Amino acid sequence: MLTYTLEKGGEVSLYEQLYRYIKGDILSGTLSAGEKLPSKRALATNLEVSKITVENAYNQLLSEGYICSREKVG
Length: 74
Prior knowledge:
Blueprint: H1 14-28, H2 40-47, H3 51-63
Helix pairs in contact: 1-3, 2-3
């Protein structure tokens, strides 16, 4: 499970912080190509943030081509 320390109430929104962490892990090779990311719900629970925060981060990564999404695959 991905674990990051997000600063609540900081200048940078939670989703932006999460997006930057995951993007950094992708670029550094910590997350390898084809590696499955945690579900939005599971990651939100683990990080103690809303599912929408994770969804927004994933959507930003998707729109920039860092991740791909397949419906109903998990």
